[in-house]
Amino acid sequence: MQSQFVLLAFSFFFSFIVLLFFTLFGKRTSKRSRFKIPIAYILIGPLGYFLYSVAITQSSRAFNSISETTIINNTWPIFTVVFSDLFFRKVNKSSAVRWIEGVGILLGLLSILILATNGDFLSIQIDPIGLVWGLIAGIAYGIFGAYSGTLNEDDQHIFLLVSILLSLLLISIPAALEWGSIKQVTLQDIIVAFALGAIMDGVGYILWVRAIRLSHENSRSISSIASYMLFLPFINLIIVKLFLRENQLLNPLFIISLALLLLSTCVVQRSKEISIFFQKK
């Protein structure tokens, strides 16, 4: 589609339909909670859909490339951990455990850096505007994800619905400004928008905020959940391999990146055990 904002508008519309259905027919959503809309929902909700998507779009336009934006985009799990620990969670962790978790996440980012640049770090073009937009996206989604983890199951339904509705209204403004550049909207455009909206921004968000909530309720570190999200770039490449018959999976750098990512996840998941091991030594 010639306009990313128009694509987002269509995508958000399908997300709204999915989340509306999920809210109205969710087995545990009480009628009372459906009419409870705190001001925090209105302020934080659009961060996870509207601001995140617009910032990523603007970052990719500034870089005129997806590689740099991909690297910056994958900082959102880190920001989710940071804001969860700073503002929304009370998890007693030693400084040693926090440092080990930080090292693990940095290893994950290194693996994504190798993956996105194909090992050529000098190919990265640092554009200040693109960098700022990318960091805004990560921070926005980090706050959104961290806050969603503090809500119970009923409230999460309403929070997501309010978030996507406000984001749909907001994205309609830039989409309307770029509508004139669209020659035609094809069936393929609608199918792609439906897939993005229903699966990624609909079901994907439902599962992610539920995972954060369950970790919060079970007093587990959000790092243990967020570290798994670093696998997303590799899942993307596997999909490309299966459906587009690309050969990137055979690249030695891909194997190195995957090994670093597995190490990263293990370090984050076992940060407490690693800390105890070094203390004994």
What this model shows, in words?
Helix content is 76%, strand content 0%. With 281 residues, it is an all-alpha fold. The protein has one domain (4-280). It is globular and about 65 Å long. The termini are far apart. The mean pLDDT is 79.
Q: What's the short story on this structure?
A:
By secondary structure, this protein is an all-alpha fold. 76% of the residues lie in helices and 0% in strands.
List the helices and strands and how they pair.
Blueprint: H1 4-25, H2 39-63, H3 67-73, H4 76-88, H5 95-117, H6 128-148, H7 153-178, H8 187-217, H9 223-226, H10 232-244, H11 252-269, H12 271-280
Helix pairs in contact: 1-2, 1-7, 1-8, 2-6, 2-7, 3-5, 3-6, 4-6, 5-11, 5-12, 7-8
Helix vs. strand class: mainly alpha
Q: N-to-C SSE series?
A: HHHHHHHHHHHH
The poorly predicted ranges are none
Our count of domains comes out at 1
Strand content: under 5%
Rg, alpha carbons? 20 Å
Query: N-to-C terminal Cα separation, in Å?
Result: 58 Å
Based on Cα principal axes, name the global outline. globular
Reported for the largest beta sheet, the result is:
none
Mean pLDDT, nearest integer?
79
* Helical content band: over 70%
Number of helices: 12
Number of strands: 0
